[in-house]
Specification:
176 residues
Length: 176
């Protein structure tokens, strides 16, 4: 039980860190875009770096947004049929869904790492004025994949616990 509390504390800390980093990153995107528009429209002197930097930042913070949205349960879901099922069947479906999400997250981590390593090993670079290595943006896939593995592992664990509690008590697990 204590280990679970430590893991959940670490999890909450990671989500708070991701939230803070994302706020800073999105603020930078907004500031760089304002700077570019001002430079181009008011002074007729466009910059050569803002579009590229904001694109790379958007990749990173878009990926981190997936982790944040999963935590806040704001991903799009269609639960028209799910809500009409019995509590027990809902819990079984939740375990299956969490298990599939965990498998998907593992695949994102593994293949994201391979995708990053190919770019890193070959020294691939983004085309553009800044000549930034592709590995800087591609590394976001395995990192976010690992965050998702962590999240979906906890969600799978919770779903299994709820299912076990429902089986042992025979009561509905609403509000658990």
């Amino acid at each position: 039980m204590r280990n679970t509390m430590i893991i959940r504390t670490v999890y909450k800390w990671l989500i708070k860190l991701i939230e803070t980093i994302s706020i800073i990153g999105i603020s930078l995107i907004v500031l760089f875009t304002i700077y570019e528009v001002t430079s181009r429209e008011l002074y007729n002197r466009p910059t050569i770096w803002t579009n590229e930097i904001t694109s790379y930042l958007l990749v990173w913070f878009g990926m981190l947004g997936i982790v944040y949205a999963f935590d806040k349960e704001t991903h799009v879901s269609v639960d028209f049929v799910f809500k009409r099922l019995s509590i027990k069947v809902q819990q079984v479906c939740s375990v299956i869904t969490c298990g599939l999400m965990l498998a998907f997250s593992l695949l994102v981590s593994i293949y994201g790492y391979k995708y990053w390593f190919i770019a890193f090993k070959n020294g691939w670079r983004h085309y553009g004025m800044l000549d930034i290595p592709m590995s800087y943006t591609r590394i976001s896939l395995p990192i976010v994949g690992l965050f998702l593995v962590f999240q979906t592992s906890l969600a799978t664990y919770d779903a299994i616990i709820r299912l076990r509690q429902q089986r042992t008590t025979g009561e509905s697990a609403e509000g658990v």
